[in-house]
Amino acid sequence: MKSLYIATLATLVVSSALQSAEPIPDDHKINGFAIGCQAYTFNRFTAFEAIEKTAAAGGKVIEFYPGQKLSPAEPGLKVDHNATPETLDKVKAKLKEHGLIAVAYGVVGLSKDEAESRKVFEFAKTMNIKVINTESVDAIDTFEKLVKEYDIKVGFHDHPKRENDPSYQMWDPNYILGLVKDRDPRIGSCADTGHWMRSGLKPVDCLRILKGRIVSSHLKDLNGYVKLAHDMPYGQGEGDVDGILKEFKAQGFDGPISIEYEHKWEDSLPDVTACIAYVKAWKP
To answer: To the nearest 10°, the Cα dihedral for 207, 213, 215, 216?
Structure first.
C-alpha cells in the first residue's frame, strides 16, 4: 500500500508540473510564432544592447548565450548561469523596459554532474526560460531527470558536418532522432536550419525526420548549400523559409524561434529587421 501511495504521489507531481508549464504568451508571438533573436547575433555588443536591437528589429523574445557582457556600463558582469541574482534582476528589468521575454538559453554545455547541470536549470527557471539548447550528448541521463523536475525542455543543437571529425554526428537529424526518440518528449531538436544547409541538407526534409521533436529553432536563410554560405534576410536565400514555416505550422511548432544572424556582425540590424518583417507578412 505504501509503495502504491508513493507511485501515485509521483504521478501527481509529474502531472502537476506538466499542467503548470506556462506557454509563451500570444502577445509575444508574431504571426503565430514566438520569434526573436539569439543574442549571439549581436555578440559584438552587450546583452543590454542585444535586447535593445532585438526590440528595434521587432522581435518579442530573445535567446541568451553564456558569457555575454551585461552592459556598456558594467562590462565586467556576464549574463549566464553563474550570474548573481542582482545581475539577473538587471537583465529582467531591461527585458521589461523593452517588452521582451527570455525564452531560450544556449548553446550551453550540460554536465554529467547533476549539481553543475542544475545551475543551468535554476538559471532557466529564474529567467522563466522555456528551452535550454545544448550539444552535451553524454549528459542526457543527468539532464533528463532535470527536464522532468523543472519542466524545462532541452534541444540538441546541430553544427555543420565536420569533414575532419567523423565522430561529430549532431549535423545528422537521424542521429538526433535516435538520441531523443525514447526519451522524455521535452527533449528534442534545436533545429539550426542554416547549419543543416552547410551540411548539404534541406531543412524541410530534416524537420520532417524530426517531426514532433522540434523544441526550438535557430532559423536561418543562407545564400547556398556550402560550408562557407552566409546568412541572408528571410526569403532572399536558398533555405526555403516559406517551406520551413509551413512545416513548423503543420507540426504545431510555434517556437521559440531565434534569428541567429552570423553575417555583417557590426551592422546586421537592417537584415534582422527584414527577417522579422518576412515572418510578420508571411501567409501559409
So the answer is: -20
Rounded mean pLDDT of the chain?
A: 93
Helix 47-57 with 269-281: angle, nearest 10 deg: 40
In order of 8, 9, 14, 149, the CA distances from 3 in angstroms are: 9, 10, 17, 20
Determine the pLDDT at residue 174.
Answer: 98
DSSP assigned state of 146:
H
Give 117's DSSP letter.
H
- What Rg value do the Cα atoms of the chain yield, rounded? 19
* CA 242 vs CA 45, 204, 222, 225, 234: distances in Å: 30, 10, 13, 17, 9
Q: Are 199 and 229 in contact (CB under 8 A)?
A: no
User: Quick one: pLDDT at residue 22?
Assistant: 78
Residue pair 233/263 in contact (Cβ under 8 Å)? The answer is: no
Task: Report how far residue 158's alpha carbon sits from residue 201's, in angstroms, rounded to the nearest whole number.
Answer: 12
Residue segments in the chain with a per-residue pLDDT below the cut of 70: 1-21
* All domains of the chain in start order, with CATH: 29-281 (3.20.20.150)
